[in-house]
Amino acid sequence: MGKQPTSLDIFVTHRRALLNYASSIVGSRAQAEDVVQEAWLRFDEASNGRFLDDSTSYLFRIVRNLALDGKRRLKRESQVITDDDFEAAANMSQNSPPSPEIVALYKDEYALVMAALDELPERTRMAFEMHRFGGAKLREIAVALDISLPLAHRLVGDALQHCKEKLGWP
């Protein structure tokens, strides 16, 4: 009777196919690398050193789910607030001072957003502020905070979602 392959053996054997599969879903080889790495971590934790029935299918399913989740998250974030919205607001404030009505209208929302940011963990708040207020790219945030690119993306998304909830937005 032969030795059962370990979870690492299965991963290494199918890594290239997993990358191609993830790449076809997310559309980027770099993002696919992140998805496959995250899938490996989840797969290894789930297998916990034991052989799983139909391990290969399970590994591909993890990659598929992570890739689709990431794609959905990107779509949702792009629908919420775009960089164009921030640029339009910045241009509007530079071209003319806001009217008293505009100040009054957004004063409460501004206070809610600031309070929401204060509730966030420091790293999440910093990532959000760097991205939305400082214009830093997610890659720059990842380097500055010494975290992975997907984690930087998730932190910004989590902060944005938290602010939306505090504002009562859908």
From TrEMBL:
SUPFAM superfamilies: Sigma2 domain of RNA polymerase sigma factors, Sigma3 and sigma4 domains of RNA polymerase sigma factors. InterPro entries: RNA_pol_sigma-70-like (IPR039425), RNA_pol_sigma-70_dom (IPR014284), RNA_pol_sigma70_r2 (IPR007627), RNA_pol_sigma70_r4_t2 (IPR013249), RNA_pol_sigma_r2 (IPR013325), RNA_pol_sigma_r3/r4-like (IPR013324), WH-like_DNA-bd_sf (IPR036388). GO terms for molecular function: DNA binding; sigma factor activity. One of its GO terms (biological process) is DNA-templated transcription initiation. Signal peptide: none annotated. The keyword Transcription regulation applies. The keyword Transcription applies. This is RNA polymerase subunit sigma24.
